[in-house]
From TrEMBL:
The protein's name: Sucrose synthase
Residue ranges annotated for the Sucrose synthase N-terminal domain, each copy included: 10-124
Superkingdom, natural source: Eukaryota
Domain Glycosyl transferase family: 567-733
UniProt xrefs under SUPFAM superfamilies: UDP-Glycosyltransferase/glycogen phosphorylase
Annotated ranges, domain Sucrose synthase first GT-B: 270-558
Function: Sucrose-cleaving enzyme that provides UDP-glucose and fructose for various metabolic pathways.
Signal peptide range in chain numbering: none
Amino acid sequence: MASAAAVLQRSESITDSLPEALKQSRYHMKRCFAKYIEKGRRIMKLTQLMEEMEKAIDDKNDKTQVLGGLLGYILCSTQEAIVIPPYVAFAIRPNPGFWEYVKVSADDLSVEGITITDFLKCKEMIYDENWANDQSALEVDFAALDYSMPRLTLSSSIGNGVALVSKFITSTLSQKLENSQPLVDYLLSLNHLGDNLMINSTIDTALKLQMALIVAEVFLSALPKDTPYPDFELRFKQWGFEKGWGDTAQRVKETMRTLSEVLQAPDPINMEKLFSRLPTIFNVVIFSPHGYFGQSDVLGLPDTGGQVVYILDQVKALEEELLLRIKQQGLNAKPQIVVVTRLIPDARGTKCNQEVEAINGTKHSHILRVPFQTENGVLRRWVSRFDIYPYLEKFSQDATTKVLDHMEGKPDLIIGNYTDGNLVATLMANKLGVTQGTIAHALEKTKYEDSDIRWKELDPKYHFSCQFIADTIAMNATDFVIASTYQEIAGSKERPGQYESHTAFTLPGLCRVVSGINVFDPKFNIAAPGADQSIYFPYIERQRRLTSFHPAIEELLYSKDDNNEHIGYLADKKKPIIFSMARLDVVKNITGLTEWYGKNKRLRNLVNLVVVGGFFDASKSKDREEISEIKKMHALIEKYQLKGQIRWIAAQTDRQRNGELYRCIADSKGAFVQPALYEAFGLTVIEAMNCGLPTFATNQGGPAEIIVDGVSGFHIDPNNGGESSNKIADFFDKCKVDATYWSKFSTAGLQRINECYTWKIYANKVLNMGSIYSFWRQLNKEKKLAKQRYIQLFYGLQFKSLAKNVPIPSDEAPPAPKPD
Ligand code: UDP
Ligand code: LCN
């Protein structure tokens, strides 16, 4: 492969350097391009390009030379190529977020730089030539509206939005004191239930504020640090100050000093600090419409996985942080967080038919359920997230009325989850003029190859046309995006990020999105979730262990008989256990892990395998993927004669017991294995690490970022089972000769979690985002409005009619099986 020395000079574009690179290997390249075009029009991916190039170059040394040079580097950076003989158009991605498009003629190897529009048109030629040639085909270009907004320039800065926005705010407010007037106006607008906060109209200019702060600081210096705010509240009011600065003289003084420094000479550090202290957020709405959103008996039901766990933990963490901040601000307001989901009358034994439910472990937070309405009244049955679009507009209107009623006022922040939640959040935030955040968990687009260009073929099953347009609308409308990892936004060197895949795409016949989202937009932030540390705590904390679960867990792991909850058995109880737990989806690759284990004798001699997922009777499943995975599991257990070494346990819904289960696996000196073909984040990975269980996790997606390979756990390649199972076997071989080896990884995993993956860190970051982006949207009011208009147009003219085409099932007919 390409050497570092062969890498492009950054000042050179690929269009500039490719002609010379092709010239140097002209003979081989002519053969290679002849091969590319020989099969006519098609889309080629990197592996195909490489395979066919290998075939075109016979000599091994020549091959090494070509691939080791600049050409090899350019080819390796190619994401896809479109063959329209005699041309081959390449989409090349030298670095995360950076794309170049070139067209090479197979006849004479001439190179031409092309625009994204031209590249997308080439792609369309394969599927819909008329559309590609239609002069008036709809082109969507959000960049045209964003031209004056500041952007990041470095791949490495992607996801650091708050830090960058505070720099941009700093430069806007710099130079002279009057430039800080927008900040003064913003402070004047802060209130809680109509009561002014921070300042009142006595202080209406930056100069007056600066002077008043000096006087107040002198006054505060003379007070004991812990003097409560009410003791000097009256005096402060006379000067124009209201509540919100702090609960004690010391805290008020610190906040005032920070603001004074900002007024004197703004700097990003103080700016960020100031916004983290402002009382801007009290009421939060979190949308998660699809699936069965509940606090018990729901995990494992269709469309109901980590997102539910994430949101419930998120609410607890946000409420805790809000309560702390409100206390420190010297206020006694009651924060309210409301999770708005769908009310499902046919609730399958869950509480999803209950309108309001208090959230366990919180003081003031609730789940609020709003039904889907159709022309025939309330829809009773569950609907797949892929079919959810026709209900969302009405749902958002009904939800808005209910929320205003429940909160007795407007929320300060609206956060959406996944496509449906983000679209509804957009509609509500737009209507109420409230700051919006979005969370994807997983964007479906990258999961299915060529899902944009093939949308017509896939639409009956997945309704991707609705989904991709809804995602693009929400991404553009939102004030900030909360991502779990960098890869979610901008991928890795090799693989584009989930958001990045919305930079440009095309839905022939509908629209060509030439600029969908820019991953260099400072709205992108990384705030990784944590795992509930009251449930997932280290196995070593003996006094906290939930020993009452031990008999049941012993039975679950080791009893000999098959029943509804488990099949298979472990003959040798002394062996460590490798453990995995996930929904039984193809992408989770539990069957892959079972096969690796079956094939690897060394691993089978060293450890037992325990997997939790799905259930055993395929005839009871309504999900096509799950059915095939269940059948495959049975076949693998048979094929590799795994009984005696494997325990397959059905999906588990008791989180407390699951926590203890991870710890019992740690007692066996085992490991957690997450073998997914792709994982957006991977909550099980951090749950296992929190319990002190050494973890092997897929290198495809979020886990590759959570674990530092060989330090806090291990990466495994889901596409190379032999290598992965040997890596696990090597670990257990080493543990046999060095008793400290296992503990080293147990401890390092925990350390990694405590440094980066806790809900406390998350809540702090998200509330800071809410605060700073609320001001940022104020500063960019006019631009935001212009963009909103464009979005409304796109929503009204495209999304609405597409959503209308999604069939509405009748409550009588059984639900159609859906892929998950
Ligand atoms: N989970 C569970 N029982 C199961 C399978 C999974 O309680 O049988 C939980 C698991 O502990 C985790 C969540 O469901 O909290 C799955 O989240 P993850 O991010 O791993 O995957 P997702 O299902 O969201 O794709
Ligand atoms: C959805 C997924 O697919 C997982 O990877 C995440 O961990 C989960 O949501 C929570 O964000």
